[in-house]
Amino acid sequence: MSLSRALKLSTALLCFSGAVAFPSASAPPESAQKGVLIVVSPVSNDTGIKMVPDNAHPFQAPGPNDQRGPCPGLNTLANHGYLPRNGIASFEQIITAVREGFNMEHDLAGALAGFAMLARGNAFLDLVSIGGVSPLIPVLPGAIDGPKPPGGIATHGRFEGDVSMTRQDAAIGDNVHFQDSLYDELLLYVGKFGDNSPVTGNSSIVTTKVMQEFKFARFVEDQIKNPVLQYHAGRNSLSYGEAAFVLNFFANGTDGTLSTPVMGSFFRNQTFPDDWYRRSSPGNITLIGQGVDEIRNAHPVPPGANAPNGTYVLDAPINSCSDVYFNLAVENLPASYSKATGVFKQNVDTLLAAVAKAFGCPVIFPTGLSGV
Ligand code: HEM
Ligand SMILES: *[C@@H]1O[C@H](CO)[C@@H](O)[C@H](O)[C@H]1NC(C)=O
Ligand SMILES: *[C@@H]1O[C@H](CO)[C@@H](O)[C@H](O)[C@H]1NC(C)=O
Ligand SMILES: *[C@@H]1O[C@H](CO)[C@@H](O)[C@H](O)[C@H]1NC(C)=O
Ligand SMILES: *[C@@H]1O[C@H](CO)[C@@H](O)[C@H](O)[C@H]1NC(C)=O
Ligand SMILES: *[C@@H]1O[C@H](CO)[C@@H](O)[C@H](O)[C@H]1NC(C)=O
Ligand SMILES: *[C@@H]1O[C@H](CO)[C@@H](O)[C@H](O)[C@H]1NC(C)=O
Fold first, then answer.
1. Could you tell me one molecular function GO term of this UniProt entry (predicted)?
2. Among 172, 278, 289, 313, which one has the highest count of C-beta atoms within 10 angstroms of its own C-beta?
C-alpha cells in the first residue's frame, strides 16, 4: 500500500541531491527582470448563455511558432483569439477566456490557471505556455525551479499526466497531440452506450454512461501498457474531471446535450462548432466534482501507481483538507518557491491562494520537487 509513496519519496530525494543545479548562469537575477504583479480579477456578471464565438473571434489555424498542447479547451480558445493566438497567456487572460468561451466559473478557472502557472509557467512574469517550452518564457528568477525554462502545460508531470482520453501516456507515445486511434475508441463507446438524437442520429449523444465505460477502459489499457503509470490523487481526479469537462463544457448550452459532431469539432479541429452556445450557468468545482464521482464510481479506480512488477499499488490515504488539493498543490509543486521574493513572492502567494480557494482549503506551502 505505502510502497509507491515510499518509492516516490526516494526518487524525490535522489533528484534533489543529483539533478538540480542552481543558480544557473543563464538565469538573470530577479532584480534584472521586471515582474508583472498578478491581480485576481473580480467575478464577472457576464455568465449567461450566448452563442460562441462572436464576430470578433474567428477561427484561425495556429502558425508554426504558436504553442498548442494537451488541452482541447485552451487550444480552441487560442485558435479563436480568446487567448493570445501564440499560446502564451497570463493567469488573468485564462480566467477571462474560459468564462467567455465556455462559462467556466471564476474560482474553478482560477484554480486551474493558478496551478498551471505554478506547475509549468513563469509566475514572476505571469506567463504560461499552453503547449511546450517557448522562447518567450525565460527561466525563473534565481533558477529556483531548475536551470531550464518552464516547460509549458505540455510537459509531463505535475499537471499533464496519464490516462488521458485522446492523448497517450508519455511513456507510451504522444502525450501532447490529439490521437485519432484513442478518439476512435471513444467513438466506439458512444456508439455502444450513447443516446439517440433525431438530429445527429442514433447513438450519437455522449453521456455519463459513455464516459464511465470509456474512462475505465482507458485505465485498464494503460495499467497494462504503461510500466510507470502514475495515477495519484491529483492526476486521478483531474483525469476524471477532464471527462466531466467534456460533458459539461463542450455540450451545446441550449439543451446541455453533446453530440459527436460537436465533440469532434473541439477535439479534432479545435474549433467552436457553428451555431454553438456555451453553457447557461457557470460551471464550478462542485458541478465538476459531482461529475468526477459519477464517472469514477461506476468502476472505482483509487489513487495509485504501477509497481515495477506491473501491479497497480494503491496509495496510502492522504489526511488533509482534500487529498486532490494536497497531492497537486503541496506534493507536486516545488518547495523552492519559498525562495521567491518581491513581486515573484506576491504572485506565488496569490496563485497558491487561488488553488486553495476552489477546494475550500487553507494554503499549505509546497513541499515537492525542484528542477524536474
Ligand atoms: C482553466 C484553465 C485550464 C487549464 C490550465 C487546463 C489545462 C489542461 C491540461 C494541462 C491538460 C492535460 C492533462 C492530461 O490529460 O494529461 C488538460 C486536458 C484537458 N482539458 Fe484543460 N485546462 C483548462 C481549461 C479547460 C477547459 C475550459 C476545458 C473545456 C472546455 C478543458 C478541457 C480539457 C479536456 C477535455 C482535457 C482532456 C484531454 C484528453 O484527455 O484527451 N480544459 N487541460
Ligand atoms: C454587469 O455589470 C455591469 C457593470 O458592472 C452592468 O453595466 C451590466 O448591466 C451588468 N450586466 C448584467 C447582465 O447584469
Ligand atoms: C433509431 O432508433 C429508433 C428507436 O430504437 C428506431 O426506431 C429507429 O429506426 C432508429 N433510426 C435509425 C436511423 O436507425
Ligand atoms: C473539421 O474541419 C474540416 C475542414 O474545415 C471539416 O471538413 C470537418 O467537417 C471538420 N470536422 C469536424 C468534426 O468539425
Ligand atoms: C444548439 O442548440 C440549438 C437549439 O436547439 C440549435 O439551434 C443549434 O443548432 C445547436 N448547435 C449545435 C452546434 O448543435
Ligand atoms: C455551483 O453551481 C451550482 C449549479 O450548477 C450551484 O447550485 C451552486 O450554488 C454553485 N456552488 C457554488 C459554491 O457557487
Ligand atoms: C508487486 O509489487 C508490489 C509492490 O512491491 C507488491 O505489493 C505485490 O505483492 C507484488 N505482486 C506480485 C504479484 O508480485
1. metal ion binding
2. 278
3-state secondary structure of 160: strand
pTM of the model: 0.92
> Residue 265: what residue type?
S
Query: Ligand 5 atom 3: the closest Cα is on which residue?
Result: 254
pLDDT along the chain (372 residues), means of 10: 35 32 44 85 97 98 98 99 98 98 98 98 98 98 96 98 98 98 98 98 98 99 98 98 99 98 98 98 98 98 98 97 97 96 98 98 90 44
Count other C-beta atoms under 10 Å from residue 341's C-beta: 14
User: Cell 448563455 sits at which residue?
Assistant: 49
- Please give all residues whose beta carbon lies within 6 A of any atom in ligand 6, as ranges: 281, 284, 286-287
Tell me how far the alpha carbon of residue 42 is from its chain's centroid. 23
> Hey, what domains does the chain have and what are their CATH numbers?
50-359 (1.10.489.10)
Report how far ligand 4's centroid is from the alpha carbon of 272 (Å): 11
Q: Which cell numbers in the block locate residue 341?
A: 521574493
CA of 294 to the centre of ligand 6 (A): 17
Closest residue by Cα to atom 13, ligand 6, is 286
What would the grid cell of residue 130 be? 499552453
Q: Whose CA is nearest to atom 34 of ligand 1?
A: 242
| Alpha carbon of 249 to ligand 4 centroid (Å) | 20
Rounded to 5 degrees, what angle do the CA atoms 132, 138, 141 make?
130
Distance (Å) from CA 308 to ligand 7 centroid: 8
Least Cα distance to 184 among 222, 149, 217, 224 occurs for: 217
Cell of 143: 533558477
Query: Mapping DSSP to helix (H, G, I), strand (E, B) and coil, where does residue 42 land?
Result: coil
